[in-house]
Specification:
Order of helices and strands: HHHHHHHHHHHHHH
Helix content: over 70%
Radius of gyration: 18 Å
CATH topology of the largest domain: Serine Threonine Protein Phosphatase 5, Tetratricopeptide repeat
Strand content: under 5%
Number of strands: 0
Structural class: mainly alpha
CATH class of the largest domain: Mainly Alpha
Shape: globular
Length: 234
Amino acid sequence: MVSMLRIATEPDDAEPGDDSPVRLAIVNIDILSQSLPPAHVLPPLLEQFPKLVSSQNECERRAALLALGAVMEGALDYMAEYIDQGLQHVFAALKDPSPMVVRAALVSLSQITEELPSEVVKYHSTMVPDVFNLLQSNHSEVMKAACGTLDAILEWIPQDAMVHYLPNLMKALLSIMHNSTDNDVKLIAAGISFCLLSNISCDRYSCTRFQEFFRTVSSALSRDVPQHERCQHF
């Protein structure tokens, strides 16, 4: 684990998704957490995490956040008692000056939400506005990660709270559909829209306004994204 963490702190100029040493180190951390007893794997990470996540080195902050998300699936029970403290670091990193760290925080938040949604959603009032803001990021990978994080968390937010987020969320999603040149981002935004359609009750919000919003998203998706790409995602 310590060796993988050390590799994960190295600079990484590869595109997200490429098999760089950093990405492979994070993948190995995930594998270790699923293959070995947590008591053998997690203590070194928990010992190093506070130092790395507060480091002046952005690569070390990125490594800490990605490693935290990577171990969630394989060591869920072990990590449950530490996750509240870990989440506070993740939330703080959403405002980090480094885009690579912000993206790592979003990825980690998505992974934690998949495993412990109830622990994440109780912080929705402070977390969701920050993720909304990142939908307007000038960095495409941050914007894409923010879309992915919203997709992970929205279904867990109570409807009473979701109603208050809808106006800003619709505005942000429409901006993405109109202005983004990345079809993957548009598809994720459309997926969030479909999620809203299936989870928001019209008696809680203006049906007319929401239907207009959904028609606009559908029109933009049909116009800008080739059919074969839409079929791959839906």
